[in-house]
Amino acid sequence: MSIAAPFGTAHAPATRLQTGRLHITARGRKVLAALIALPVVGVLASLALFGGGSAVATGTGSASDFHYLTVQAGQSLWGIAESLAPAADPRDVIAEIVSLNQLTDSAVQPGQRIAIPADIAR
Question: The whole model's pTM is what?
Fold first, then answer.
């Protein structure tokens, strides 16, 4: 007796085409990131090299003049600012003196020599 195959299974099963999603490996991600980053880095580098304004040294000096003042006992920057520029706001004058002398605060000591901008000292 022969065993017959069930009806409809006499032929080989049909193969399906697999249409799955593309999977990228870790190495592929690194290569893709490098390919994307390379032009971006190139553009940024060229902008940094050729896009910025260039600094050119000139032979002319600064037009800033300074007068120097030696702090006397009992003087403060507030008192100095009021005596140097009575019409100006003392806070602005103090800020200018602190910035010019690169002081960490507005405290001064007797005998300390400080620079005063020429436009204030007039």
Answer: 0.47
